[in-house]
Amino acid sequence: MPINPDAVGTVSAPTQSSWTSKDSLLYALGVGAGVEELAFTTENSMNVDQRALPTQVVTLADFSGAFANVGSFNPAMLVHGEQRIELHRELPVAGAVVTTGEITRILDKVKGAVIEVTARSVDADTNEPMFTNVMSVFIRGEGGWGGDRGPSEPRNVAPDREADARITYQTSPDQALLYRLSGDRNPLHSDPSFAAMAGFDRPILHGLCTYGFTGRALLSALCDGDPSSLRSMEGRFSSPVFPGEALTIEVWRGAGGAVFRTLGQDGRVVIDNGGVSVG
User: Fold this and answer.
1) Residue 246 included in any domain
2) 21 and 133 share a domain?
3) Could you report the per-residue pLDDT of 98-130, keeping only the tens digit for each?
4) Which one of 55, 74, 118, 254 has the largest count of C-beta atoms within 10 Å of its C-beta?
């Protein structure tokens, strides 16, 4: 069965997931935090309370069941297109959530289909909203049924001027091996033979790892390192990154937030149309 456009609005069964202080520490290390960010990388430093990076929410919600009604497709043709997170409160360093995933859009891009899933996570004890993930994937070869193509104008276009802030982080050649311990064990990011079958000469970095590096830069540039100030963050993945590359995040400040993009070591854009709100 091909992609089913009528799946829009279908909702998955609720799933519960949890994380510990150790999981938060491991995630922070996986996205490059270190000795200069002890609030995220240690739990017992004198006069420093442990806190969680906001972008960790991308690893905490299981909404795979939302895809049950979208039809059949070749998973090898699927690529992560965009990611948005919304924080309804500061993410605790340990906790549990119940997540419900909903298919919120299916777009016909002719050469492929875009499927958007919105996953809403509430505190498992209080039922209060904690965070929301909105993920879109592009599935090559599954378009052409004559459906809605979606908006043609991109959001969060970088202004035609110098960025207000520019932060560069160096990834490690081993970065993907560390980040994968936060949940994404896809061998595309660890196995050279599997990466070669996908057309890469070596394993690539997880897009969400690049997203986490970017989130750290935005905390520094806009929030003075305070994770409670970041309200939302979104961006479009435009090019793969290899472990060991330097990443440069360019930020243009505005009212209530900023526009941003992330560049690879050679200057290509790897996350585009980035937008962040703070408060």
Assistant:
1) yes
2) yes
3) 999 999 999 999 999 999 999 999 999 999 999
4) 55
